[in-house]
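Run log // design_07
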């Protein structure tokens, strides 16, 4: 297969950060090439150079063997490059055909827009991708999967040669994902080149041919996916071999309880749940969507008012009626929605870290800026938060580093019980490994953790015991030993009893 795209020695710097350092990338005709790397590895910057959003400081881009001068998104379109981002670039109140030709309208004699021709051509590309809707349908009435297909139609309508899919399956169901894969295979068969960005390693072989790994803005390697292993790819991403979870010396069977929840209930979401969290333990919480896992956590911390039940800390019953009460009792909750509930994205990393522990940085009624900076810098260093400085706005950090800022808030608060609610969702494999290490370090230092996750393999890797919920009830709790299987946990999560 001929080379469709060649990017050589691509270098791009921002103030204080070298985002790309001599990166190379080759895309062949009729292939899907996976671009892999941690958050902050340089994937997005490389694609923005290709799409004209950024201009490289150094390096050459060639398309079909010819040097391409891409200085704007308009230039990228002219070279047949189209990027389908995770957050779609669509006008919800306009019909499908107007979205496809928005800004690139088909004009007839007299300068009028040829709507009839636009609808006709829209039907043709919609048929190719299997989007069975009227071109006059407003985009706001479409599902997420259908909107993604509209983005594909936009690319096809203007004869794209290269289509970039950025986390395309993040919000799709299994059946929608399979349909997307079929469309990608059809695009490949027509000779298009596909660049595929995702954190889901399990789907790469289903859709990809080759994979290029970036790390810290540098090119690491390109491999044929059929000849690579998941561990090999992860090792290239993080720069070292990944070991198994360290077995801690503390015996969980004899460790004393630090948190006891008895018969806790909240509306129809939490139904008489009881469990114990032991000293230096990671207690996993599994369950399908709607099982009540987050509702359980929010009832424990007092965000939701319990209807019955009680909570004990170190053997003593405590009254927790708000998250502030929970923090004062040493319980810190890390929300699954870090952007809405966990962080003030417009504020600095420093402010986010200390916001829940102002008494530590207050000097009478004023903030002691030196103390605030010292505390935040220490935690940035301890958690290896990749940020130019503590003054950097949190919104500019990668998802994994934003998550570590949330953890830093808890450490600043000096909690001894942490509730991690889907804390690795939406972050890459390398960032996940760092979160796991932070959790391991917390328990080694004497803390205890409740870890809510939808990923059963993740719980089996990190947890000591796993509590399984089904329709608001705690249906089983498993010791995480050699006899535990994913099938056992999933069966319990689906309400099957043994």
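design_07 sequence
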């Amino acid at each position: 297969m001929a080379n469709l795209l060649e990017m050589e020695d691509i270098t791009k710097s921002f103030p204080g950060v070298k985002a790309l350092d001599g990166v190379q990338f080759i895309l062949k005709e009729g292939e899907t090439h996976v671009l892999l790397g941690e958050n902050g590895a340089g994937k997005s910057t490389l694609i923005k150079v290709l799409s004209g959003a950024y201009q490289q400081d150094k390096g050459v881009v060639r398309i079909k063997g010819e040097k391409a001068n891409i200085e704007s998104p308009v230039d990228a379109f002219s070279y047949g490059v189209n990027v389908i981002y995770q957050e779609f670039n669509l006008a919800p109140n306009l019909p499908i055909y107007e979205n496809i030709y928005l800004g690139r309208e088909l004009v007839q004699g007299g300068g009028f827009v040829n709507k009839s021709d636009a609808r006709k051509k829209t039907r043709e590309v919609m048929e190719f991708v299997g989007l069975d809707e009227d071109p006059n349908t407003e985009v706001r009435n479409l599902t997420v999967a259908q909107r993604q297909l509209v983005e594909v139609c936009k690319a096809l309508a203007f004869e794209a040669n290269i289509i970039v899919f950025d986390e395309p399956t993040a919000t799709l169901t299994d059946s929608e994902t399979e349909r997307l894969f079929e469309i990608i295979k059809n695009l490949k068969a027509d000779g298009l080149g596909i660049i595929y960005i995702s954190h889901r390693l399990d789907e790469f072989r289903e859709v990809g041919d080759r994979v290029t790994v970036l790390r810290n803005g540098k090119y690491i390697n390109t491999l044929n996916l059929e000849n690579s292993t998941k561990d090999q790819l992860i090792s290239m991403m993080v720069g070292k071999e990944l070991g198994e979870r360290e077995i801690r010396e503390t015996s969980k069977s004899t460790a004393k309880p630090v948190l006891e929840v008895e018969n806790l209930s909240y509306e129809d979401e939490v139904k008489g749940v009881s469990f114990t969290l032991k000293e230096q333990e990671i207690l996993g919480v599994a369950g399908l969507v709607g099982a009540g896992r987050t509702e359980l956590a929010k009832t424990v911390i007092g965000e939701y008012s319990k209807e019955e039940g009680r909570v004990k800390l170190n053997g003593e019953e405590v009254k927790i009626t708000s998250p502030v009460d929970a923090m004062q009792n040493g319980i810190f909750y890390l929300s699954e929605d870090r952007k809405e509930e966990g962080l003030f994205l417009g504020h600095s990393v420093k402010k986010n870290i200390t916001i829940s522990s102002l008494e530590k940085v207050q000097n009478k009624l004023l903030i002691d800026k030196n103390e605030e900076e010292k505390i935040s810098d220490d935690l940035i260093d301890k958690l290896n938060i990749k940020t130019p400085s503590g003054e950097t706005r949190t919104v500019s950090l990668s998802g994994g580093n934003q998550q570590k800022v949330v953890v830093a808030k808890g450490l600043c608060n000096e909690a001894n019980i942490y509730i991690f609610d889907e804390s690795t969702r939406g972050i890459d494999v390398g960032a996940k490994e760092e979160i796991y290490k932070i959790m391991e370090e917390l328990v080694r230092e004497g803390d205890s953790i409740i870890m809510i996750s939808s990923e059963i393999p993740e719980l089996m890797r990190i947890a000591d015991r796993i509590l399984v919920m089904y329709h608001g009830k705690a249906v089983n709790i498993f010791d995480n030993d050699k006899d535990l299987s994913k099938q056992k946990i999933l069966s319990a999560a689906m309400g099957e009893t043994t």
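Residues 50 and 106 are 26 Å apart (CA to CA).
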